[in-house]
Design a protein that fits this description.
Mean pLDDT: 90
Largest sheet: 3 strands, mixed
Number of helices: 13
Shape: elongated
Low-confidence stretches: 1-18
Structural class: mainly alpha
Strand content: 5-15%
Length: 242
Protein backbone atom coordinates (compact mmCIF):
# COMPACT_ATOMS: atom_id res chain seq x y z
CA UNK A 1 0.00 0.00 0.00
CA UNK A 2 3.03 2.25 -0.15
CA UNK A 3 3.11 3.05 3.57
CA UNK A 4 5.31 2.04 6.44
CA UNK A 5 4.31 1.93 10.06
CA UNK A 6 5.65 1.54 13.59
CA UNK A 7 3.88 0.38 16.73
CA UNK A 8 4.34 3.08 19.35
CA UNK A 9 2.27 5.01 21.91
CA UNK A 10 1.29 8.68 21.92
CA UNK A 11 -0.38 11.34 24.03
CA UNK A 12 -2.36 13.10 21.28
CA UNK A 13 -6.02 13.88 21.91
CA UNK A 14 -8.60 11.25 20.97
CA UNK A 15 -10.20 11.95 17.59
CA UNK A 16 -13.44 10.40 18.82
CA UNK A 17 -13.46 12.64 21.89
CA UNK A 18 -12.24 15.94 20.46
CA UNK A 19 -13.57 15.52 16.92
CA UNK A 20 -10.35 17.01 15.58
CA UNK A 21 -7.05 15.77 14.22
CA UNK A 22 -4.25 17.24 16.30
CA UNK A 23 -2.07 19.65 14.25
CA UNK A 24 1.34 18.69 15.58
CA UNK A 25 2.73 19.52 12.11
CA UNK A 26 2.06 23.23 12.64
CA UNK A 27 4.17 23.43 15.79
CA UNK A 28 6.88 21.33 14.17
CA UNK A 29 6.91 23.52 11.06
CA UNK A 30 7.11 26.70 13.14
CA UNK A 31 10.26 25.45 14.84
CA UNK A 32 11.84 24.14 11.65
CA UNK A 33 11.29 27.36 9.69
CA UNK A 34 11.99 29.97 12.40
CA UNK A 35 13.91 28.15 15.15
CA UNK A 36 11.25 29.35 17.62
CA UNK A 37 12.27 27.93 21.01
CA UNK A 38 8.71 28.24 22.32
CA UNK A 39 7.55 25.92 19.53
CA UNK A 40 10.26 23.41 20.42
CA UNK A 41 9.21 23.53 24.07
CA UNK A 42 5.61 22.89 23.08
CA UNK A 43 6.68 19.92 20.96
CA UNK A 44 8.48 18.42 23.95
CA UNK A 45 5.86 19.17 26.60
CA UNK A 46 2.53 18.84 24.80
CA UNK A 47 3.57 16.14 22.32
CA UNK A 48 6.46 14.24 23.96
CA UNK A 49 5.72 10.83 22.42
CA UNK A 50 5.07 12.26 18.96
CA UNK A 51 8.37 14.12 19.12
CA UNK A 52 10.23 11.03 20.29
CA UNK A 53 8.78 8.93 17.46
CA UNK A 54 9.56 11.60 14.89
CA UNK A 55 13.18 12.08 15.93
CA UNK A 56 14.09 8.52 16.86
CA UNK A 57 11.96 6.33 14.57
CA UNK A 58 10.97 8.38 11.53
CA UNK A 59 14.00 10.62 10.99
CA UNK A 60 16.41 8.38 12.93
CA UNK A 61 18.50 11.33 14.10
CA UNK A 62 19.42 9.84 17.47
CA UNK A 63 17.90 9.75 20.94
CA UNK A 64 15.51 12.54 21.90
CA UNK A 65 17.54 13.15 25.06
CA UNK A 66 20.88 13.58 23.24
CA UNK A 67 22.52 16.89 24.11
CA UNK A 68 22.68 18.08 20.50
CA UNK A 69 19.48 16.52 19.17
CA UNK A 70 17.61 19.81 18.76
CA UNK A 71 20.44 21.21 16.64
CA UNK A 72 20.51 18.03 14.53
CA UNK A 73 16.74 18.19 14.08
CA UNK A 74 16.79 21.83 12.99
CA UNK A 75 19.85 21.42 10.75
CA UNK A 76 18.39 18.33 9.06
CA UNK A 77 15.49 20.38 7.71
CA UNK A 78 17.65 23.20 6.36
CA UNK A 79 17.95 21.24 3.13
CA UNK A 80 16.34 23.35 0.39
CA UNK A 81 14.07 20.50 -0.74
CA UNK A 82 12.73 19.99 2.77
CA UNK A 83 12.32 23.72 3.34
CA UNK A 84 10.21 23.94 0.18
CA UNK A 85 8.26 20.90 1.30
CA UNK A 86 7.43 22.62 4.61
CA UNK A 87 6.03 25.56 2.66
CA UNK A 88 4.02 23.27 0.38
CA UNK A 89 2.57 21.29 3.28
CA UNK A 90 1.47 24.49 4.99
CA UNK A 91 -0.18 25.70 1.79
CA UNK A 92 -1.94 22.46 0.87
CA UNK A 93 -3.03 21.57 4.39
CA UNK A 94 -3.91 24.95 5.85
CA UNK A 95 -7.40 23.47 6.23
CA UNK A 96 -7.93 19.74 6.83
CA UNK A 97 -11.57 19.83 7.89
CA UNK A 98 -12.53 17.58 4.96
CA UNK A 99 -10.00 14.96 6.08
CA UNK A 100 -11.10 15.26 9.69
CA UNK A 101 -14.78 14.82 8.88
CA UNK A 102 -14.24 11.83 6.61
CA UNK A 103 -11.92 10.14 9.10
CA UNK A 104 -14.23 10.75 12.07
CA UNK A 105 -17.20 9.36 10.14
CA UNK A 106 -15.19 6.35 8.97
CA UNK A 107 -14.07 5.48 12.49
CA UNK A 108 -17.61 5.81 13.82
CA UNK A 109 -18.73 3.40 11.11
CA UNK A 110 -15.84 1.07 11.97
CA UNK A 111 -16.86 1.03 15.62
CA UNK A 112 -20.44 0.23 14.65
CA UNK A 113 -19.43 -2.89 12.73
CA UNK A 114 -16.54 -3.78 15.07
CA UNK A 115 -17.70 -2.61 18.53
CA UNK A 116 -14.52 -3.75 20.26
CA UNK A 117 -12.34 -1.63 17.97
CA UNK A 118 -11.15 1.45 19.83
CA UNK A 119 -11.01 4.74 17.95
CA UNK A 120 -7.39 5.93 17.84
CA UNK A 121 -5.86 9.29 18.56
CA UNK A 122 -4.85 11.05 15.34
CA UNK A 123 -2.27 13.75 14.64
CA UNK A 124 -0.46 15.20 11.65
CA UNK A 125 3.30 15.55 11.34
CA UNK A 126 5.99 16.28 8.77
CA UNK A 127 8.71 13.74 8.02
CA UNK A 128 11.25 13.50 5.23
CA UNK A 129 9.35 11.57 2.55
CA UNK A 130 9.71 8.27 4.44
CA UNK A 131 6.71 6.84 6.32
CA UNK A 132 3.16 7.80 5.45
CA UNK A 133 1.26 6.50 8.47
CA UNK A 134 2.67 5.89 11.95
CA UNK A 135 0.54 3.38 13.84
CA UNK A 136 0.66 3.29 17.62
CA UNK A 137 -1.19 1.32 20.28
CA UNK A 138 -4.10 3.74 20.10
CA UNK A 139 -2.72 6.40 17.76
CA UNK A 140 -2.24 7.32 14.13
CA UNK A 141 0.33 9.79 12.88
CA UNK A 142 -0.24 11.17 9.38
CA UNK A 143 2.89 12.36 7.58
CA UNK A 144 1.56 15.11 5.34
CA UNK A 145 4.79 15.22 3.33
CA UNK A 146 3.70 11.94 1.70
CA UNK A 147 0.39 13.34 0.45
CA UNK A 148 1.34 16.36 -1.68
CA UNK A 149 -0.14 15.08 -4.93
CA UNK A 150 0.85 12.78 -7.77
CA UNK A 151 2.50 15.61 -9.70
CA UNK A 152 4.59 16.93 -6.84
CA UNK A 153 8.09 17.56 -8.31
CA UNK A 154 10.08 15.58 -5.70
CA UNK A 155 7.78 12.59 -6.12
CA UNK A 156 8.31 12.52 -9.88
CA UNK A 157 12.05 12.01 -9.39
CA UNK A 158 11.83 9.37 -6.66
CA UNK A 159 8.61 7.36 -7.00
CA UNK A 160 6.91 5.34 -9.71
CA UNK A 161 3.70 6.53 -11.33
CA UNK A 162 1.78 3.82 -9.49
CA UNK A 163 3.21 4.94 -6.15
CA UNK A 164 2.49 8.60 -6.90
CA UNK A 165 -1.16 7.83 -7.57
CA UNK A 166 -1.43 6.86 -3.89
CA UNK A 167 0.34 9.98 -2.60
CA UNK A 168 -2.68 12.25 -2.75
CA UNK A 169 -4.95 13.91 -0.21
CA UNK A 170 -7.78 11.48 -1.02
CA UNK A 171 -5.68 8.54 0.22
CA UNK A 172 -5.09 9.83 3.76
CA UNK A 173 -8.27 8.38 5.23
CA UNK A 174 -8.07 5.02 3.38
CA UNK A 175 -4.45 4.62 4.47
CA UNK A 176 -5.30 5.46 8.08
CA UNK A 177 -8.08 2.87 8.13
CA UNK A 178 -6.04 0.21 6.33
CA UNK A 179 -3.02 0.36 8.58
CA UNK A 180 -4.97 0.79 11.78
CA UNK A 181 -7.04 -2.32 10.98
CA UNK A 182 -3.85 -4.14 9.99
CA UNK A 183 -2.30 -3.28 13.36
CA UNK A 184 -5.30 -4.91 15.07
CA UNK A 185 -5.55 -7.87 12.69
CA UNK A 186 -1.96 -8.58 11.56
CA UNK A 187 -1.27 -10.44 8.35
CA UNK A 188 0.19 -13.96 8.49
CA UNK A 189 3.96 -13.81 8.41
CA UNK A 190 4.83 -17.22 7.00
CA UNK A 191 2.84 -17.32 3.77
CA UNK A 192 3.11 -14.60 1.11
CA UNK A 193 -0.14 -15.61 -0.57
CA UNK A 194 -1.98 -15.44 2.74
CA UNK A 195 -0.55 -11.96 3.36
CA UNK A 196 -1.85 -10.77 -0.02
CA UNK A 197 -5.25 -12.32 0.68
CA UNK A 198 -5.39 -10.69 4.11
CA UNK A 199 -4.53 -7.27 2.69
CA UNK A 200 -7.26 -7.79 0.10
CA UNK A 201 -9.70 -8.46 2.92
CA UNK A 202 -8.64 -5.29 4.73
CA UNK A 203 -8.84 -3.18 1.58
CA UNK A 204 -12.30 -4.59 0.86
CA UNK A 205 -13.37 -3.63 4.39
CA UNK A 206 -12.02 -0.10 3.86
CA UNK A 207 -13.98 0.19 0.61
CA UNK A 208 -17.06 -0.95 2.51
CA UNK A 209 -16.54 1.54 5.35
CA UNK A 210 -15.99 4.48 2.98
CA UNK A 211 -18.73 3.50 0.55
CA UNK A 212 -16.43 3.92 -2.43
CA UNK A 213 -14.04 1.79 -4.48
CA UNK A 214 -10.71 3.10 -3.22
CA UNK A 215 -8.81 -0.14 -3.68
CA UNK A 216 -9.35 -2.14 -6.86
CA UNK A 217 -7.11 -5.14 -7.45
CA UNK A 218 -7.30 -8.90 -7.83
CA UNK A 219 -7.13 -9.53 -4.09
CA UNK A 220 -10.00 -7.14 -3.36
CA UNK A 221 -11.97 -8.78 -6.18
CA UNK A 222 -11.34 -12.20 -4.63
CA UNK A 223 -12.65 -10.95 -1.29
CA UNK A 224 -15.71 -9.50 -3.02
CA UNK A 225 -16.37 -12.90 -4.57
CA UNK A 226 -15.89 -14.62 -1.21
CA UNK A 227 -18.37 -12.28 0.50
CA UNK A 228 -20.93 -12.86 -2.26
CA UNK A 229 -20.58 -16.60 -1.73
CA UNK A 230 -20.72 -16.23 2.08
CA UNK A 231 -23.29 -13.48 2.67
CA UNK A 232 -23.64 -14.25 6.39
CA UNK A 233 -19.94 -13.57 7.05
CA UNK A 234 -19.39 -10.59 9.33
CA UNK A 235 -16.52 -8.16 8.93
CA UNK A 236 -14.97 -9.53 12.11
CA UNK A 237 -15.12 -13.08 10.74
CA UNK A 238 -13.62 -11.89 7.47
CA UNK A 239 -10.68 -10.21 9.20
CA UNK A 240 -10.09 -13.25 11.41
CA UNK A 241 -10.38 -15.92 8.72
CA UNK A 242 -7.40 -18.17 8.15
Amino acid sequence: MGCQWHLKSTDADHVGHSGAIQRYDRIESLYLTTGDIAALQQMNTTYPMETRMLIEDVLQLGQVNDADINTKFLYFFQDSTLQQMLIDVEAQYADIEDVNQELSEAFRHLQQVLPDMEIPKVYTQIGSFDQSIIVGHQSLGISLDKYLGADYPFYKDHYTEQQREMMVREMIVPDCLSFYILSRYPAPTDNPQERFRHMGDIQWVVNHLLGRQVFDNEHVAATEQYMMEHPSTTLLQLLQRK
